[in-house]
Every structure is written in structure tokens, then in C-alpha cells.
Input
Amino acid sequence: MSAEYLDDSFHWVRDGKALEDMAALIAQQSFVAVDTEFRRRDTFYPEVALLQLAAAGQCWLIDPLTLTDTKPLQALFDQTNLVKVLHSASEDLEVFERWLGVLPRPIVDTQKAAAMLGMGFGLSYRDLVRDLLRIDVAKDETQSDWLIRPLTQAQCQYAMQDVTFLAQCWPILEARAEACGHLPWILEESGGMVTGGRGPLAKFKSAWKLSPQQLAVLLDLIDWRESQARRRDRPRNWILHDKVIQDIAKKIPTSMPQLADSEGMPAGVLRREGKQLVALIAAACERALSDPPTAIPAPANSRVRKLAKSLTPAMASLASELGMNVEILMPSRELEMLASFATGEGLLPRPAHWQGWRHSAVIKPLELEAQRLLGEQNHAG
Output
């Protein structure tokens, strides 16, 4: 471990005074390394168990179970001249949104930064620290129950190293990013992160095959489950499993006996919510007759897939020129989306992250290449 962080050099923050003192010191810095420990086994929302911060050669372990006022943290996370450095930040952002009601801004996700500096896509924290600091991070406490008190010394050391090393990695990454001119891009890419991912509908990959009525039922069942999961704070599949929703949408049951025949329908759900679900299904079908839902595009056809495949070398060339990992530029499903727009078959809205740095550095060159390839195909035809 670096001499900058001694084995016992962390401070517990368990009350308002300690939180205010910590926030006042960190507020004077240019960046702070951030990580959380949480549990998400039987709940919809992550249960925050610990917050770790590191800045100015110090580390703090903040105990959310003992704090009654988090306003100093909210103010710190809102401070625009303080960069919050996280690694693989998506789940941490969910924690902050639920616990603090605020997302840290501005942020840097060092996993994204590493990919944009050509170090590897989806690089783990352990690999990042090994690559930059030549330190092997132990992961012995990964499966710990962080809600149990008191935390063991081993847990505290594990939690501490997740931010102390991160605080040493970021200046190295920042210097590399400044040297190649990618720092504004990294800040933009990280700043565009939001919670929620692609949404629960993304799991239903065959939804494009459904009729308007079936699709209306599917969408209403997803919305119903989402509201139930949030209200009861339980995982989505504990409310109603994906396969049950899919089977109901396909069969459109109109009575309790028909609903009971749905594949995997839990008896408890049928007993408590059956009548409500039958009414929901009937209402969705009725609405679809006069106001059918927007159809979900089918998977790419052979022409689009062929064009996307032909664009792969151009994508690799762009990645090489930019010194980035190709996966950070555009995932394969989006390359097919770009190809569908080029062929005039694109139906979905363009992703928001196609703007900014990616628009000029990636999208425009690929669109020009797509038009060139289509022109060659038409000429040959």
C-alpha cells in the first residue's frame, strides 16, 4: 500500500459534526474518490451500508446507519468545482439517488476513462489498480454483509482501499487524458451517466412479434409491476416474473381461470392481485383498439446486418486513431441502429449519447462510410 495511506489512516464519520468537518475539508479539493457498499438481495432499491471518500491523502468511512442529516453530503455532491471520481459508477448512482436524492456532479467514471484511453473495456477496479499502481488488491470481503455492525477490521481495510487507490489512479488517468486531449470527452461521457439502464422492457426481446393488443398488455403489466416493486421495495421478479408477464401478454387471459393457467403464475399473486390483473388486461386491450401502442422495431434485416458488418473495419480504424477501445465508441446493437438509419429503415429515436464528442468523432465518420458503402453496393447492383 502506498505510504500516502497508512493501514489505519481512515476516519469514521458517524455524527453530524464529523460529517461537517469532513465536508469542509473535501470541499477545498479538486477531486474526491467515492465508493459505496450496499446490499441488494431482497429489495428493489439498494440498501446503503457504507460510503467511502478519499481526498487530500485522507480517507473517511461514513456510516449512513447513524447519520440523521445528510445535507453536507448533498452539498458536497452538488459542488461543481469538485470532481467526484468513481469506478463503474452505475450502481453507486442508484444508491445516491435513493439515499441522498441527488446524483454527484461532475463525475468521472474511471472504468469509462480507462476504455477511452485504450486500457481495456469494462476494466475491473482490481485490474486498474494493478495496471497503474502495480498493487494487487485483495477482494476477500466482496460478499460481506455490510449492514451488520460492528464492521470487522478486514471490512474496514477493504472499504478503505476501494477509494484510497482510486484517489491515486485518477491523477495518472487525468494526466494521460490531458496529454491526448481526451479529458473533456471523458468528463462528458461520465457526466451523461443516469440510473435505470435500458429499462425493464429491454428484457423482453421478442416483444416486437406481439400484436398491438398483446403489446399493450405487456407494457401495462410492466408498468404495474414496476409500481408494485417500488412501493413494496421488492425485486421485480418477486412481484411477477418476466416469463409470467410474457405468457400473459401472449395469451391475453380474460378470466381468473385463464389467468391461473399462465405459465408460472404464483398462487399468492393470483389470490391477491388476480382480479386487478384481469381488469388491467381488459383495459389494455380496449385501449389498444383505438390507440395502439407504438410498434417495437423488429431485429435488423439482412441488408442492415450486412452494412453493420461492413462498417466494423471503419469502427476499428476510428478506435485505433483515437487510441480508444472499440467497445466504448459504439456497441454492436447501436452499429446496427446506425446502419438502419443509413438505409432509411431506422424507427427508434437516436440515442442521446450520439451527440457531443461522439457525434463528431464517431457518428459522422461512420455515417459517411455507410453512405460510401451503400453507393458502392448500388453501383455494383
Q: What stands out?
A: The domain at 211-290 is CATH 1.10.150.80 (DNA polymerase; domain 1). Confidence is low (pLDDT under 50) at residues 1-7. The two ends are 64 Å apart (CA to CA). The chain has three domains: 10-191, 211-290, 302-380.
